[in-house]
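ingest -> validate -> predict -> emit
validate: passed (alphabet ok, no gaps, 331 aa)
predict: started
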Amino acid sequence: MSGGETQEAKTTYREAMREALREALRADDRVFLMGEDVGRYGGCFGVSLGLLEEFGPERVRDTPLSESAFVGAGIGAALAGMRPVVEIMTVNFSLLALDQILNNAATLLHMSGGQLPVPLVIRMTTGAGRQLAAQHSHSLEGWYAHIPGIRVLAPATLEDARRMLAPALADPDPVLIFEHGSLYNVSGELLPTTTPLDLDHAAIRRPGTDISLITYGGSLPKTLAAADELAAEGVNAEVVDLRALRPLDVVAVTGSVARTHRAVVVDEAWRTGSFAAEVSARIAEEAFFELDAPVERVCSAEVPMPYARQLEEAALPQTADIVAAAHRAVD
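emit:
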């Protein structure tokens, strides 16, 4: 290989997240990781495996089983000038820290007249598809996208898993990163780069002309698979990965709809009050006259997530559901 070429590295989503943490810990002494089992156990999903041995217990801190306490400690550390990365095992446990996130982290900069920024990053696993039943299969990132004062990210690719953390740590506001549990084992090639990652804009993962498939996070692979199936049937679908739920890149969404004139919004959350409803409303408000068909939504069934594999699969949005919704809009 010549000196001017850059070699792609084989990695997984989990390893990309781990390398992002390692890079952040090396680059800035103010950065530290804290959460339940992030140290000796290596994280509930193995993301922080080996970091305790490399950086020590001051930088990789196991916490008591109290989300309110350690998220609150993270807020205090951020106020004191540190750059904490707080890991919450799964999104349902974040509800135990909702007071800290909503009433403190999200509001302090505003309520202090700009004097108290909270440069805090909170990582948590979201989503279903792993037979963890009703208590550990929630997709609640749309709830957090409702809250002013925080940024909500949903990395769906290896590149975003690897590169979202650095700009998140540089943000003066709290940043919540939702990592879909089904993505951790996804593997592929990752091209090393030093180009800063843009957190403000959605990404067109596949260009198209006939219909816009708009999604984020763990639903992206299913949506891309649906686009492949549609292509085989003569339907050229554009796939939009939102990447950030707050702030929402409305320009990218409406721009895609202006090109295709049809839209399907795919969201693993429940349909009622979902983030898909917000995206659909924005399309109706700002691109209504571009539409040649009603906006379709593909969401999870309105039930607590079942444990049984076949029932869980039936409750979740699947590739076939996305294809069927696209055909309703196009045909």
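The longest strand covers residues 83-90.
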